[in-house]
């Protein structure tokens, strides 16, 4: 099975570039894509190096005003073609694994006369005396460029240093000029170099002093290019960043000397080849399978730096480029299918190594700081057990068992003071699902508070996650031979199960509800989290009519593009992302969130298998198909996406947020478990594909150290596990 993934994902409307660890180029609202270079900010973790750099070509003292006439993107390269008269520039940008954003520039002279062109690669970095603002300090002149130290800042965060290099292959001269601020644009005429460029290049001088530190530090590198008629010249340039000078200089030297397009291509192709190879006879599912793997790599960081100790995946771009508990559970479910468990395990280990004294986990792990007051609920128990099925590792279980016991202790001690078996949500943010009636029903001011723990709500989602954790700890204790502890966790899980059935289940309405701990009455707010118990053994067959009555009801949750986060008949429901009359960034009062859909597919799929329900099997298939097709711009097969949330009636994404490739759900995991049919029971691996009616072939997948290959063609299902033929369930 040979699939050219880079070619498959090729398109003309995208610009994100990744492939390194610390550095990333994913500006959400770029203003300068049609200019050579990368002037829109470059991300160093979740901090900004702003601006990046630009490439100016000067012909006899006159800057060449190029026009971008074509662009082509794939995960490895952004190719931009520029023209101005008889001069052509092809720029191929890539972000190399050395954390260097490089431009491979090809200049072609289409005229009948020779040309001698001046090339200036430059940037303009902010300087300031204030510790709370970005500052730039020149460190050294390298053989290929100039190294400068950035003080990167964010509100309420400690400053963080980065060493940055601007580099140009074949550099002949350089200039650094300090200036009062002006329009900071990639316009050569606004820079000091417009006047300081002479016949022999830039004036070789570094000026960084003034009467104060406020201003712009212009850094320029120069070389000359001579072009005979019809000829072309090729050179590399770009910007890199690292925690020390030696590393960033080494990265620049290597990046300038190589063919960066080929290096990036090899990096990405090697990654895609390492994955389970999945050929799917349906174009939307086929492309999205590999598109999701692209997004996971895009935001993967494998560093041992400050608070980030293990490889893991950030939730998204810019300010989402942190390790976040709510999305880490998703990354564990997705990357457990990789050949190595390193990222899946690291997704939990980062939080364990930074565990708070009270046993809880920080909501966000930034490279230079832990979030002090933030917290997110997450289904750690399920994620750990699912990971173990693919990569059984007793040492990992031994490593996490104690910290996860401590984590559960926090919930029992702090989040269930009544000893009810149900667990508190204390602000709207910690569920990851803000702006919903489920919070304002217990406190009308709940949507006004920040991360200040001002409400109390016995949440269905929080309680189900803790229930799964108790079940997982009982299983871990059994695996480790701790019989007494296993018994205690089993009893605790049984207590929570009983409480959910007695206090959260409404016999008349046939739905689970959050509970107000003031009087232990159900809130009556219908949200998608009300179905979370169906992903567990809390429910039995008697609960299925309620699931079908509500989840599959078009007047409640099953909209044209299911599943809405809050029921359509909720008094604060809005399909427009509006909360009380104003469009919000992250509302959960009626939008379709991929995170919700991942849960809902499992709600349907778990119950379909457990209760052998044909309708639920069919609805699982329907939801998977609708879910994935929704994540394409206007249904365009060439343009997959993954935004935070979507309109439930027209399927349009929250493009206004600028946050694409948001890793806040699981998709790969759903395709393996329901399309390919991979399931695990007490007897081990079983194959139970759902009725997609799609031919597929799955190869290069290892489960518990054994190779699994599955093929389904024209209704004939074949599978081979560890060299032996196995049958479907």
Explain what you see.
The protein has 729 residues and is α+β, with helices and mostly antiparallel strands. Among the domains are: 266 residues, Beta-galactosidase, Chain A, domain 5 (Distorted Sandwich), CATH 2.70.98.40; 119 residues, no CATH class. The chain is 28% helix and 26% strand. The protein has 16 helices and 40 strands. The strands form 12 sheets. It has an 8-stranded antiparallel β-sheet, covered by helices on one side. It is globular. The two termini are 26 Å apart. The mean pLDDT is 98. InterPro entries: 6-hairpin_glycosidase_sf, 6hp_glycosidase-like_sf, MGH1-like_GH.
Brief overview, please?
By secondary structure, this protein is an alpha+beta fold. The chain contains 16 helices and 40 strands.
Please outline the helices and strands.
Elements: H1 5-8, E1 23-24, E2 37-38, E3 42-44, E4 47-49, E5 53-59, E6 62-63, E7 67-74, E8 77-84, E9 87-96, E10 100-109, E11 115-127, E12 135-141, E13 145-152, E14 160-168, E15 173-179, H2 193-196, E16 197-198, E17 201-202, E18 205-206, E19 215-227, E20 232-242, H3 245-257, H4 260-274, E21 277-280, H5 283-298, E22 300-301, E23 312-313, E24 323-324, H6 325-335, H7 342-353, E25 364-366, E26 369-370, H8 380-390, H9 394-414, E27 424-425, H10 437-440, E28 457-458, H11 460-479, H12 483-504, E29 505-506, E30 511-512, E31 515-516, E32 521-522, H13 544-551, E33 578-579, E34 582-583, H14 594-610, H15 614-630, H16 668-675, E35 678-681, E36 684-687, E37 696-703, E38 706-713, E39 716-721, E40 724-726
Parallel strand pairs: 15-18
Antiparallel strand pairs: 1-3, 2-5, 3-4, 5-6, 5-11, 7-8, 8-9, 9-10, 10-20, 11-19, 12-13, 13-14, 14-20, 15-19, 16-17, 21-37, 22-23, 24-25, 25-26, 27-28, 29-30, 31-32, 33-34, 35-36, 37-38, 38-39, 39-40
Helix pairs in contact: 6-7, 6-8, 8-11, 9-11, 11-12, 14-15
């Amino acid at each position: 099975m040979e699939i050219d993934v880079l070619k498959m994902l090729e398109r003309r409307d995208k610009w994100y570039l990744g492939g390194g660890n610390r550095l990333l180029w994913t500006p959400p609202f770029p203003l300068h894509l049609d200019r050579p270079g990368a002037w829109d900010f470059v991300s160093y973790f979740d901090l900004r190096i702003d601006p990046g750099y630009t490439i100016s070509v000067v012909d006899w003292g006159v800057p060449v005003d190029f026009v971008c006439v074509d662009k082509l993107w794939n995960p490895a390269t952004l190719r931009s073609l520029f023209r101005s008269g008889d001069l052509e520039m092809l720029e191929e940008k890539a972000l190399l694994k050395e954390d260097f954003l490089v431009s491979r520039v090809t200049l072609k002279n289409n005229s009948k006369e020779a040309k001698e062109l001046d090339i200036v690669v430059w940037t303009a970095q902010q300087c300031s005396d204030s510790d709370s603002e970005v500052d730039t300090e020149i460190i050294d002149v390298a053989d290929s460029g100039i190294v400068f130290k950035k003080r990167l800042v964010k509100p309420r965060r400690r400053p963080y240093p980065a060493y940055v290099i601007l580099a140009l292959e074949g550099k002949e001269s350089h200039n650094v000029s300090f200036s009062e601020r002006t329009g900071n644009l990639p316009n050569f005429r606004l820079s000091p170099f417009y006047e300081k460029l002479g016949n022999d290049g830039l004036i070789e001088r570094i000026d960084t002093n003034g009467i104060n530190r406020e201003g712009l530090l212009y850094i320029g590198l120069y070389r000359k290019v001579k072009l005979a008629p019809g000829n072309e010249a090729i050179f590399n340039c770009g910007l890199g960043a690292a925690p020390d000078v030696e590393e960033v200089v080494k990265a620049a030297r290597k990046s300038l000397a190589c063919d960066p397009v080929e290096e990036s291509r090899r990096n990405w192709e090697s990654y895609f080849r390492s994955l389970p190879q999945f050929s799917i006879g349906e174009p939307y599912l086929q492309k999205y399978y590999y598109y999701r793997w692209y997004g996971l790599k895009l935001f993967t960081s494998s560093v041992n730096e400050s608070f980030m100790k293990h490889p893991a995946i950030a939730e998204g771009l810019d300010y989402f480029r942190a390790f976040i508990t709510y999305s880490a559970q998703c990354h564990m479910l997705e990357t457990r299918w990789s050949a190595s468990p390193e990222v899946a395990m690291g997704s939990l280990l980062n939080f364990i190594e930074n565990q708070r004294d009270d046993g809880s986990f920080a909501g966000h792990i930034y490279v230079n700081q832990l979030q002090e007051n933030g917290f997110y609920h997450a289904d750690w128990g399920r994620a750990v057990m699912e990971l173990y099925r693919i990569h059984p590792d007793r040492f990992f279980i031994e490593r996490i068992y104690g910290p996860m016991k401590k984590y559960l202790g926090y919930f029992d001690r702090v989040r269930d003071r009544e000893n009810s078996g149900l667990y508190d949500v204390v602000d709207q943010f910690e569920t990851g699902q803000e702006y919903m009636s489920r919070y304002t029903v217990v406190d009308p001011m709940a949507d006004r508070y920040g991360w200040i723990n001002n409400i109390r709500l016995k949440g269905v989602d929080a309680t189900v996650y803790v229930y799964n954790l108790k079940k997982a700890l009982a299983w871990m204790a059994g695996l480790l031979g701790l019989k007494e502890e296993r018994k205690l966790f089993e009893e605790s899980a049984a207590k929570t199960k009983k409480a959910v059935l007695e206090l959260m289940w409404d016999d008349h309405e046939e739905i689970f509800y959050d509970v107000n701990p003031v009087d232990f009455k159900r809130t009556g707010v219908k949200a998608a989290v009300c179905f979370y118990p169906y992903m567990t053994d809390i429910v039995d067959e008697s609960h299925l009519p309620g699931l079908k009555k509500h989840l599959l009801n078009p007047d409640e949750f099953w909209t044209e593009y299911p599943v809405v986060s809050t029921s359509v008949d909720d008094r604060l429901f809005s399909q427009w992302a509006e909360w009380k009359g104003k469009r919000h960034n992250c509302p959960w009062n009626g939008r379709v969130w991929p995170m919700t859909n991942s849960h809902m597919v499992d709600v349907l799929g778990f119950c379909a298998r457990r209760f052998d329900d044909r309708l639920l099997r069919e609805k699982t298939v329907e939801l998977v198909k609708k879910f994935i097709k929704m994540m394409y711009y206007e249904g365009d097969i060439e343009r997959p996406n993954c935004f935070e949330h979507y309109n439930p009636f027209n399927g349009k994404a929250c493009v206004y947020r600028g946050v694409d490739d948001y890793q806040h759900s699981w998709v790969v995991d759903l395709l393996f478990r329901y399309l390919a049919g991979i399931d695990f029971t007490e007897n081990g691996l079983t194959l139970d594909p759902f009725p997609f009616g799609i031919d597929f072939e799955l190869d290069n997948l290892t489960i518990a150290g054994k190779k699994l290959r599955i093929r389904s063609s024209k209704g004939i299902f074949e599978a081979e596990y560890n060299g032996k033929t196995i049958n479907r369930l």
